[in-house]
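Dear colleague,

Thank you for sharing your sequence with our group. We've completed the structure prediction you requested, and as agreed, I am returning the results in plain text so they can be pasted directly into your records. Please verify that the sequence below matches your submission; if there's any discrepancy, let me know and we will rerun it promptly.
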Amino acid sequence: MMLELNKTLSEGESRYGHNRVARIMCINGIRCSVARYNKPKRPNKPSGNETAENILNRDFNASAPNEKWGIDITEVTAPGVSKKAYLATMIDLYDKSPVGYAISDHNDVALVQKAIDAAFEANPNAHPL
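Please find the predicted structure tokens below.
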């Protein structure tokens, strides 16, 4: 609106700024339509087919060794060093002892998979939850 208004002015007339044009439009009840834009799409929530069933149901007590395992990932930083290391430890919930572990400089799925592989390598006959 401001650009079109300033195009119609003859030489010597003062130009209008966007705030002045907006104020005059507001006084006269003139509104402009704002261009719509497409909002970025958010990922869908996982459906029931993608979510695993809650078998453990927050029961972290085991009655026998190698019945239930859990995993914990810890971020480790040495003093004076800016790099971080990540320690993934597979824990037997019966006596809270470590069953397998892995260390990496990235906290990702590969780190967890290495810890799981190490746990099953140390306990080949185990079938934990």
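Summary note from our side: The helical segments are 2-7, 18-27, 109-122.

Kind regards,
the structure core
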